[in-house]
Amino acid sequence: MIFLLLTVSVLAFFLCWNLIPNQKVSNVTGVFFAILSILSVLAMMGNFKYHFGMEQQTIVTRTEIAPVKQMMILKQPVGTDGSEQAVIYNKKAIQKKPTVAKPAMDTKNVIKENASKNQLVTKGTYWVYKNDFYKALFGFAQKHELIKQTKTFEVENGVLVMTPDQAKQFGAKMKAEAKPMQTPEAMAAAKAKGAEFVQGKLTADMQKNPKMSDAQKQKLTKKYAAEFQKQVKAQSMAQLSQKVAAEMNLK
Known about the structure:
Layout: H1 2-19, H2 23-50, E1 54-64, E2 72-78, E3 84-89, E4 99-101, E5 107-115, E6 119-129, H3 132-138, E7 145-156, E8 160-162, H4 164-178, H5 184-208, H6 214-247
Parallel strand pairs: 2-8, 5-7
Antiparallel strand pairs: 1-6, 2-3, 3-4, 6-7
Helix pairs in contact: 1-2, 4-6, 5-6
């Protein structure tokens, strides 16, 4: 609206100063629109340079995040002194390519461990318009402006924080440590536990439904076998990751 006001004021000044035959009326209206034009220019300059009509406002947002490969958040120090860091994480549990949060002149990344849940807390300070009048007056000239923001990545207990280089070492150690666990004896013991798990679940279902058909039994057997494998894999990964993390002095 400020551009329109300036345009109308300049045009009105020209018309009043040159086309009104009454000299007194011409002078008064001409001076009025000249002053209005000058004030419009000063207001625009004040808005652009000194944020006239605006005030600082702090906005906090919270967004759930997920660890990379279900167990880690990666950090990469950047800059000559390494005081800033990029953070690599997932915005959702299943994500093909991790998200990289890079630091900037107005953005700082912080990692807070042992939190209650995995979430990104963004605290930003912005220049915003004081009220609807200033927003209508300068809204097309200048939008809300970010002054600074801090992105705090809150990581719950059990999620490892490491650099990409440490992640490579971690993966190699995980593979090396997993090989001794894949002996015929260990696999036979796991198979026996799995059969016991499935039989226990199936027996409980048959007590509820004595007339269960063979097809239903086969379907439930496959379901419980997959459930057991998932549980065993999750437990093994958790135990193994804790062991490797302790060896690498990772938190």
